[in-house]
């Protein structure tokens, strides 16, 4: 099995010192920087837009993993691509034309991801599986950091792994990843783990490398 990659979510960063918070996870050994975009419509919270993505782009060489929790997503795909996103993930539930949206992301030259909420079956992705580079299983209801991992997500991760088969698609999990849940999640087949509160807890940059390493060790 390939080593798991860790994608700290800046949702739990101290936004008054966002630059420093990103440099600290970069130097702390993160693999991706996960950016949670929320619109107050698809999810009950509002976070950041392309302006912030372009502002943080120069701070790290690591891929920016941009998770769009917005509906509709299509009108903003080009803006996030131009802002410097490397991976753009949209929700399967966010619009009626998932196939078209994924094509739009790839047309921008970016990696296309699709996320599914806890209630959405993996089988919803059966007919677009060749159109994605990343499959994100949400292990909490999207909108907020710091929620508990939903155990049923382990079943979905195994199903997603089976659906992916030998394709070069990363299986990502987002929500409630901690050193305590990471081992089981890895066994279920996740390639990339998003971790917000378990990396940024306390907002002390001196601790981030250790927190990332703790998840990796687990
Ligand atoms: C939830 C976001 C997550 C969130 C994870 O809507 O998509 O990326 O930041 O936070 P934790 O790791 O605290 O569950
Ligand atoms: Zn996320």
Account of the 3D structure:
The protein has an eight-stranded parallel β-sheet with strand order 1-8-7-6-5-4-3-2. Strand 2 (33-38), helix 2 (50-56) and strand 3 form a beta-alpha-beta unit. The protein has a single domain, classed as Aldolase class I (TIM Barrel, Alpha-Beta Barrel). It has eight helices and eight strands; from the N terminus they run βαβαβαβαββαβαβαα. 44% of the residues are buried. Helix 2 packs parallel to helix 3. By secondary structure, the protein is of the alpha/beta class. Bound molecules: D-xylitol-5-phosphate and zinc ion (ZN). Zinc ion binds next to strand 2.
Write the layout of secondary structure elements.
Blueprint: E1 5-8, H1 18-27, E2 33-38, H2 50-56, E3 64-69, H3 74-83, E4 87-91, H4 98-107, E5 111-116, E6 134-138, H5 153-164, E7 170-174, H6 182-187, E8 192-195, H7 197-200, H8 208-217
Parallel strand pairs: 1-8, 2-3, 3-4, 4-5, 5-6, 6-7, 7-8
Bound molecules: D-xylitol-5-phosphate and zinc ion (ZN).
Residues 9, 11-12, 34, 36, 67, 140, 142-147, 174-177, 194-198 line the site of D-xylitol-5-phosphate.
Task: Summarize, please.
The chain is 32% helix and 19% strand.
Note the total helix count. 8
* Residue fraction in strands: 15-25%
- The domain tally reads 1
**Structural class computed from helices and strand pairing:** alpha/beta
Question: Hetero groups bound?
Answer: D-xylitol-5-phosphate, zinc ion
The mean pLDDT is: 98
How many E strands? 8
Tell me the series of helices and strands, N- to C-terminal. Answer: EHEHEHEHEEHEHEHH
Cα-atom radius of gyration: 16 Å
């Amino acid at each position: 099995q390939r080593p798991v990659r860790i994608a700290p979510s800046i949702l739990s960063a101290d936004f008054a010192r966002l630059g420093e918070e990103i440099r600290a996870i970069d130097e702390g050994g993160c693999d991706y920087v996960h950016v949670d975009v929320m619109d107050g419509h698809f999810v009950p919270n509002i976070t950041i837009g392309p302006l912030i993505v372009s502002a943080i782009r120069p701070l790290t060489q690591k891929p920016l993993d941009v998770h769009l929790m917005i509906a509709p997503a299509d009108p903003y795909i080009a803006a996030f691509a131009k802002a410097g996103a490397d991976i753009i993930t949209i929700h399967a539930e966010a619009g009626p034309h998932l196939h078209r949206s994924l094509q739009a992301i790839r047309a921008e030259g970016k990696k296309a991801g699709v996320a599914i909420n806890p209630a959405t079956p993996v089988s919803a992705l059966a007919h677009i599986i060749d159109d994605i580079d990343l499959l994100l299983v949400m292990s909490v209801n999207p909108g907020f950091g710091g929620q508990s991992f939903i155990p049923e997500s382990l079943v979905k991760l195994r199903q997603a792994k089976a659906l992916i088969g030998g394709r070069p698609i990363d299986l990502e999990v987002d929500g409630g990843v901690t050193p305590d849940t990471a081992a089981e999640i890895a066994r279920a087949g996740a390639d990339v783990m998003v971790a917000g509160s378990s990396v940024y807890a306390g907002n002390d940059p001196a601790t981030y490398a250790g927190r990332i390493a703790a998840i990796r060790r687990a």
